[in-house]
Amino acid sequence: MGWVALLRAINLGARNKVPMAELRAAFEAAGCTDVQTYIQSGNVVLRAPSRSATTLRRRLEAAVAERCGVTSTVVLRTWPELRRIAASHPFGADTSKSAVTFLAEKPTAAAVRRLRELDVAPDEAKIVGRDVLIHYPNGMQGSRLTGALLERTLGVQGTNRNWRTVARLAELIDAAS
What we know:
By secondary structure, the chain is α+β, with helices and mostly antiparallel strands.
């Protein structure tokens, strides 16, 4: 089965350094095949026999901790899920100021309401299942809609990727299919 693994909070400045060759090796040691990484921020396209996201996530988190010495939340999406996200940009044709926060779990309805009530204009956030699609018309720098605010409001950990990265991951999936 095809998966995309998105690691949270690795290779941020001097923190949680994980060379991509080591990350690939950790995933392969955990039983994954066709492992490809994209840039240094912990994006991995892979195949794994597991159909259970929970089982695979636990196995990958343990492998990364053991092989790389880093504790990181692994957020998983199936190949079809990632393709749907990449094709669903709701903010017009220009994707240059958009991002996706991939959540580790689906937020509660109450948490979604809390997010909708936040005044973060001119930024926009749309929750689609376990993902938050975000538009930063003035750029991410200085935005009030930060990853920390999203996590506090939703009560769920997440990892953010710009739309260019999401689109490139979809291309890698298409090439591997």
